[in-house]
Amino acid sequence: MSFFHQAKKHSFVGVAASLGQSLILGGLVLLSAEPCPAPDLKLPSELKLPSFPGVFKKNGNELEETTHAPTGPGGMCVLPSGEYVISCHQFFNHQYRVMMLDKQNKWVPFPNAEMNTPDSGYPVVLDSVLGVTCDSRGIVWMLDNGRRSDTPPKLVAWDTKRGQLHQIIVINPQALAPTSFLKNLVLDPEAPLIYITDPADGISSAIVVVDIETNLARRVLEGHTSTTMDPSLDLELDGRPVEVRRPDGHIATPLTGVSPIAIDRKGEFLYYGPRNGSSLFKIETSLLRRLDIAPNVLESQVDGVSPKPICDSMSIDSKGRIYFGDISRGSLDYVSPDDDYLNLRLLLVDPRVSWPGGLLIAPDGNLHFFSNQLHRTPFFNGGKDVSSPPFPIFKARPLPSSRFGF
């Protein structure tokens, strides 16, 4: 199912220009959603993506609230020792950027207060962290997009076992776009690489590949079908579209490009897709590790995998089953290799879940995720916070090892 996206890069520049004036709110560039000529994103006939089918419920899965976050989280990881680490989503404007639930069951700034405090004089200060992940050694990687203060985006790694800074990588400007808003990340288990999603403006969306040995970053698949938003797919929650009304009355739909990202246990394939998109894609990581592949050749190696919901996060288990935090339904969905990933199925749904995110399989083998009510933040509501704490963190059992447990 490989395909080559035939639209040239200059055509996307033209589309961006046709969107009209942009506005910067909270460091995020917003583009008007006024009707405009759409980019030519028609796929070649050889790409046979599965259609979006009905959703089926798996019974008997209990959803457990493990704790409540102090603010709406943006990302989450679980340390090998079991503690939660969350990023505090910048749309909530919380005092701290990253926090940890310590062994005394108290939320404390992570890794310390100084790193979370502007003008503290600390050697490195976090500005606006979203993506966080932890490796088996207990090193937590924090993706700072710099959008609170328009500082250069960076990766900050903290060694939790030694209690010290492990590494800092400032993302080189050549790997960024003017509208970049770095969001989620995954570690390659077989190579010294980190893969980052950049939804940008939904049109210049891309994957950023960072080499943690050389500190060099590359921007790939920019403007490709697999990373850009589907302009026909809207997100509605609480009975209304999730959008930003600019001061001039125009409507903007931010952060709709590539967002969820995951990698299989062997590190063979990178899975990803746009938040506002109904298809999941993959590409061999061996191709992303190479520096000698032309952009058009790399694009031709992208494969369509399965249907997906509107989501910001996903995770893959050891059996190759892929789980999604379904924002539109407040549920967890999944696809499975047992039916060639043809059907999107419902794992669980619960009224307590509002904008699920941070989905991961923790060291305890369970699915963990949070409910952050992102659509109720001031950013989406004319400066007014209409969220309703608490912000629960949940855990649930993944599918059993056998076939569908219906």
Can you walk me through this structure?
- The protein has a five-stranded antiparallel beta sheet with strand order 1-24-23-22-21. It has a four-stranded antiparallel beta sheet with strand order 4-31-30-29, with no helix packed on it. Strands 5-6-7-8 form a four-stranded antiparallel beta sheet, with no helix packed on it.
- It is mainly beta and 406 residues long.
- It has helices at residues 9-18, 285-288, 295-300, and strands spanning 2-3, 22-25, 28-31, 64-69, 73-78, 84-88, 98-101, 107-109, 129-134, 139-144, 154-159, 164-170, 185-187, 193-198, 206-211, 217-220, 236-237, 240-241, 244-245, 251-252, 258-263, 269-274, 279-284, 302-307, 311-316, 322-326, 331-335, 345-349, 356-361, 367-371, 391-396.
- It has one domain (2-396): Neuraminidase, CATH 2.120.10.
- The chain is globular, with a radius of gyration of 20 Å.
- The longest helix is centred in the N-terminal third of the chain and has 10 residues, at 9-18.
